Amino acid sequence: VKFYVAAASILEQKIAEEAGDWDVLREAGAEFLPSGCGPCIGLGTGLLEEGEVGISASNRNFKGRMGSPLAKAYLASPEIVAASAIQGKIAGPGWYQKPEGVEKVIIGEGSGDHVADKALSIEDALDKIIAEAESMIAVAEKDGSGAEAETAAPVSEAEGEETLTDIIPSFPEKIEGEIVFCDANNINTDGIYPGKYTYQDGITREQMSEVCMENYDPEFRNTARAGDILVAGFNFGCGSSREQAATAILAKEIPLVVSGSFGNIFSRNSINNALLGVEVPRLVERLRETYKDDAEKPLTRRTGWKLLWDLRRSKVVVTEKNGETWSQKVGEMPPNVQEIIARGGLEKWVKAEIEK
């Protein structure tokens, strides 16, 4: 068992040292790590190898973030992590007992009344928490993007008056390609671009394309092709910020990402790095309906479907493998976003504006 400790900041470490807590941890066998991003993003000492199990008081445990995608990483409070290090397995510090002579319990240390909690097994308690979380997610999807997908009706040329969006020079009026489908919700930025490559400044564009989506599906590099349109589920690009989540997709020469919805951080990051994205919940639901009975269920699927995004008409046209075609109205592309993307991203846009 290895027990690693990193302070949240230099100031916090100094406070712990002055209180004597740092020495207690050292005498207990803790190995200290620098205060910084390492424990959060999964860099440096303490990465999990294939088959290993870790428990961490950091704030994220996306697949592959703390080391091998084939390792298991759990999140817990510092108290639980310390207790687990002592016992050599995931464990708690024991049920709280109110000390004799204490009139009240200090907030944060428990109530002292643990009889009701003891009636629940660990498995039952976890099942209860997971069920509550899944229920919240289901409600959010139904009330949000999922509801739009259920109520969206086909848009035809004759349906209402067509409005045209002005397209600035050097910005594409249409984007089209074959759909490659990653059928999963909540594909996070670690899944798109692993943290272990994030600070490798010398990595080439070709190398970035090879590791794109690696933590989600190692076979993505062989399945997806240049010019494809990537379609994924809801909340694509959630997680932590890293520009490579967008630039790796561009390095793969994928010009457009379509999803049921995007994580806000990825949506803004895409604009900053000149990657186009559009939300089409109906397309995600249609693909899932089509392939729901497929026993193979690959993480990345070549569909044979074609997608055309007509930016001037703010419309997506989908041609399914059997030749059936349908269209869906989408949001207009604002001129300021067009300008940023046409310039190659926010940094290049800012430089151009300064030079004016």
From TrEMBL:
Q: What is the annotated localization of this protein? A: Mitochondrion
Give the UniProt entry's GO cellular component terms: mitochondrion
Q: Which cofactor does it need?
A: [4Fe-4S] cluster
Q: Which terms under GO biological process does the entry name?
A: L-leucine biosynthetic process; lysine biosynthetic process via aminoadipic acid
Spell out where the chain crosses the membrane.
Answer: none
The answer on whether this UniProt entry bears the keyword Ribosomal protein reads no
| Pathway recorded for this protein | Amino-acid biosynthesis; L-lysine biosynthesis via AAA pathway; L-alpha-aminoadipate from 2-oxoglutarate: step 3/5; Amino-acid biosynthesis; L-leucine biosynthesis; L-leucine from 3-methyl-2-oxobutanoate: step 2/4
Q: InterPro entries, per this entry?
A: Acnase/IPM_dHydase_lsu_aba_1/3, Acoase/IPM_deHydtase_lsu_aba, Aconitase/3IPM_dehydase_swvl, Aconitase_4Fe-4S_dom, AconitaseA/IPMdHydase_ssu_swvl, Homoaconitase_mito, Homoaconitase_swivel, IPM_dehydratase_rel_enz
Q: Which reaction does it catalyse?
A: (2R,3S)-3-isopropylmalate = (2S)-2-isopropylmalate; (2R,3S)-homoisocitrate = cis-homoaconitate + H2O
Domain (Aconitase A/isopropylmalate dehydratase small subunit swivel): residue spans on this chain? 165-282
What's the protein name?
Answer: Homoaconitase, mitochondrial
Q: Which organism is it from?
A: Fusarium solani
